[in-house]
UniProtKB/TrEMBL annotation:
Protein name per Swiss-Prot or TrEMBL: Long-subunit acyl-CoA synthetase (AMP-forming)
Cellular-component GO terms for this entry: membrane
GO molecular function: ATP binding; long-chain fatty acid-CoA ligase activity
Domain AMP-dependent synthetase/ligase: start-end pairs: 13-387
InterPro entries noted in UniProt: AMP-bd_C_sf, AMP-binding_CS, AMP-dep_synth/lig_dom, ANL_N_sf
Alphabetical list of SUPFAM superfamilies matching this protein: Acetyl-CoA synthetase-like
Annotated keywords: ATP-binding, Nucleotide-binding
Reaction(s) catalysed by this chain's protein: a long-chain fatty acid + ATP + CoA = a long-chain fatty acyl-CoA + AMP + diphosphate
Superkingdom of the source species: Bacteria
């Protein structure tokens, strides 16, 4: 790590000195903003860190944080950094079993609990023996409340500056396969990546950020929280799902990141307001109307002041990026993982000719493609190791220190990377042939009736596609939807290898959610869960049929 390394604590001190009275964090409570200035954040951080010392916690102790995004999440995170504690963030949607596993595996000595939608179901995972510290929201019972903590003991006014090598956090992967692993990130790896984001995206004090994707995920922790530390810009939060649109419109963010699932929902809402794809496309072809319609859409989304839109965490259909491009919103797709602080490759500045790729590696990041087509990456943002998992750590790196991402890729002549699937997603059919499902899924996703889909086929004669319909499609006559899906499938199958052809499309009955264990907290599909649930049902379907689950 270079001599230019500065920890988030050093940056907070800098901004408190330079613009101490400026508003830093904006937390909506019952529709009204509760604002914290830079100086107030610094002082609250010192009081909270002092309370942890008063309670007997020592530097190096691991302390968990279970809450939806809020201003106090940032402040707690800063207090843990300042006090030399190792933070263990947990997804606010995690079930009791996952919470219990992370707390036990990490050896956390206390837990902060905050904004939670289902704390009563989650409380069993925390157990009664762990000290609970409550953020100022409706949450599970705790031994100490926020205001008690802030008035407990003396503020911690002198603390050693965290070194680049010091462990900052354990970030548990969302676990699309098996138990989550704890990626050990240092202050150095975090700082380097946050600085790279600020450098590349040119984030500065005039920008406005909105934090609503889970802070337990490294992407939000770097792109929003980290950017604010290193660029000195304000951050607002979303009060609830119900107030989301209003909160975005009130904050008017200048940089806005989302995930493919939400970009799809935004698109659906736009189409619903206009009436149909056909009507919108017609309006966009009329010059004066086109400008007015685009402006109205940007205003409706709250993105009329946004200079940069991003998407990450899962592949976004190229057709969706192209559609947003047609209405004047360019979505820069980025690629990263928990293990490399979520930022290594990006299509920025946005290049419409590179839609379908995730762009080029950022400055300081090296990539290569292994003999079996796997993407390997190396950067100062790489994790130190997987916590308590030396064998998994050793298997994750090659002899040159490149991280084995598990993603299959193609790299074009311009150095742009296309992710073509996951090494572990490829399955072998009953005929002994390997199938890569992701390219097939991308083709099927072009059908406008599809919201989510997953191609399975391990042990089956041919692959089968499982489809969750979009909300609009569920209101249409079944035969109309069947005809559209059949036309899509019949257009795709002739262009696939014989062993790849899709035997059937099964429209599932129940939506895929985090709660029923089909989606991870970052909305990735758990392929192995769907395989377990549907392989037996799919066996025997032939002839490129389109069937609903209740018809089998």
């Amino acid at each position: 790590m270079s001599a230019s390394y500065k920890s988030p604590i050093e940056m907070l001190t800098q901004w408190a000195d330079v613009q101490g009275d400026a508003v830093y964090l904006r937390q909506p409570v019952k529709g009204q903003f509760r604002d914290y200035s830079w100086r107030q954040v610094q002082q609250t951080m010192q009081r909270l860190a002092g309370a942890l010392r008063h309670l007997g916690y020592q530097p190096g102790d691991k302390i968990a944080l279970l809450s939806k995004n809020c201003a106090e999440w940032f402040i707690t995170d800063l207090a843990l950094m300042y006090g030399g504690y190792i933070s263990v963030p947990i997804y606010p949607t995690a079930n009791a079993d996952t919470i219990r596993y992370v707390l036990e595996h990490s050896g956390s000595k206390a837990i902060f609990v905050g904004k939670l939608d289902h704390w009563a179901e989650q409380e069993a995972g925390v157990g009664g023996e762990l000290l609970r510290l409550a953020l100022p929201y409706d949450t599970m019972p705790a031994q100490y409340q926020w205001l008690q903590l802030l008035n407990m003991g003396l503020p911690l006014l002198e603390a050693p500056e965290p070194s680049a090598e010091q462990i900052m956090t354990l970030i548990y992967t969302s676990g699309s396969t098996g138990k989550p692993k704890g990626a050990v990130q240092t202050f150095g790896s975090y700082s380097w990546t946050c600085n790279a984001v600020v450098r590349d995206l040119k984030v500065n004090q005039q920008d406005r950020l909105l934090s609503y994707l889970p802070l337990a995920h490294i992407t939000e922790r770097v792109a929003m929280e980290g950017s604010s530390f290193y660029a000195g810009c304000p951050v607002a939060f979303v009060e609830s799902l119900e107030t989301f649109v209003v909160d975005v419109q009130r904050m008017q963010p200048t940089v806005f990141f989302s995930v493919p699932r939400l970009w799809t929902l935004f698109q659906k809402n736009i189409i619903d307001k206009v009436g149909s794809f056909k009507k919108l496309n017609l309006l966009l072809k009329i010059p004066l109307l086109s400008w007015l319609v685009k402006r109205k859409i940007h205003q409706g989304l709250g993105l009329s002041k946004s200079r940069l839109q991003g998407s990450g965490s899962a592949p976004i259909p190229p057709s969706l990026v192209q559609w947003y491009h047609s209405i004047g919103l360019d979505i820069c797709e980025a690629w990263g993982m928990t293990e490399n602080c979520a930022y290594s490759i990006i299509n920025y500045p946005f290049d419409a000719n590179k839609i379908g790729t995730v762009g080029k590696p950022i400055v300081g990041c090296s990539i290569k493609r292994s003999a079996n087509g796997e993407l390997l990456v190396k950067s100062p943002g790489l994790m130190k190791e997987y916590y308590k998992a030396p064998e998994a750590t050793a298997a994750a790196f090659d002899e040159e220190g490149y991280f084995r991402t598990g993603d299959l890729c193609e790299i074009d002549k311009d150095g742009c990377v296309s992710i073509t699937g996951r090494v572990k997603d490829n399955f072998k059919t009953a005929k002994g042939k390997y199938v890569a499902p992701v390219p097939i899924e991308r083709k099927l996703a072009q059908d406008p009736h599809v919201e989510l889909l997953c191609v399975i086929g391990s042990g089956l004669p041919h692959p089968v596609a499982l489809v969750q319909l979009s909300e609009g499609a569920t209101l249409q006559p079944r035969e109309e939807v069947r005809a559209s899906l059949k036309a899509t499938l019949d257009a795709i199958n002739p262009n696939l290898e014989s062993h790849e052809t899709v035997d059937a499309v099964i429209v599932v009955n129940d939506p895929w959610t985090i709660e029923n264990d089909v989606l991870t907290p970052t909305l990735k599909i758990k392929r192995h869960v769907l395989e377990q649930r549907y392989t037996a049902k799919a066996d025997g379907l032939r002839g490129a049929r389109i069937v609903w689950e209740d018809e089998i």
